[in-house]
Amino acid sequence: MAVVSIETLAFLLFALLTVGASVGVVLVRDVWHSALLLGVALLSVAVHYVMLRAEFLAVMQVLVYVGGVLVLITFAVMLVRRDPVSDADADPDADTGVTR
Asked: Which positions, given as ranges, span the membrane (predicted)?
């Protein structure tokens, strides 16, 4: 039986986490959950950079992608998101100008 190092196991774990989170980004219907899964995928890529002894790339990955792009997506989702309860209670003729 072959002896597997801790580093190999960690690499495989984070590789599975990256692939799983990336697939989840595409398959999840809620945009908020998709943004969170994108953050998980980007952070696990940063962990891969650390494992490859590329610490500068890992820091840039976290600062630029997680810190910038993901925060931008999160703010866009929070600002654009509509409340389904208020849409159901709205008057269907409100936008036509018809009064009863």
From this structure: 31-50, 62-80
